Amino acid sequence: MILYKTIKDFQEKDLEELFLSVQWSSGKYPEKLKKAMANSDTVVSVWEGDVLIGLMNALSDKIMTVYFHYLLVRPEYHHQGIGKALVEKMLEIYKDYARKVLIAYESETGFYKKCGFEAHDDKKPMFITYLTT
What we know:
The protein is of the alpha+beta class. It has a single domain (2-114), classed as Gcn5-related N-acetyltransferase (GNAT) (Aminopeptidase). It is 29% helix and 26% strand. The chain has four helices and five strands, in the order E-H-H-E-E-E-H-E-H. The protein has a five-stranded mixed beta sheet. The mean pLDDT is 93.
């Protein structure tokens, strides 16, 4: 049975396995991921039994703007509506916020457009990334 939870306290191993399952280099830093989840405004996670199969987190100013940072689901659970359900749950939590922001890779924009997000030609994401692969 699949269960959604709103928690921020995770085992490092669970986060490591989930992030590495989608080949994200941040999975190599489970201790940092654990702290990142604890410091997030909201984290909605998905479990099958004791296996973490997905999560989405949000960072916000608590009133106007929310940033959705991570959204990931183990590959064997793709195309089952889990990612869309995570987005819907987050959008409901932050429904009164004026701006909901995320950064998506070009290959992911179709999914996010189905969830109601729009790309803007006049805006570009900018990064400084210190963690290396």
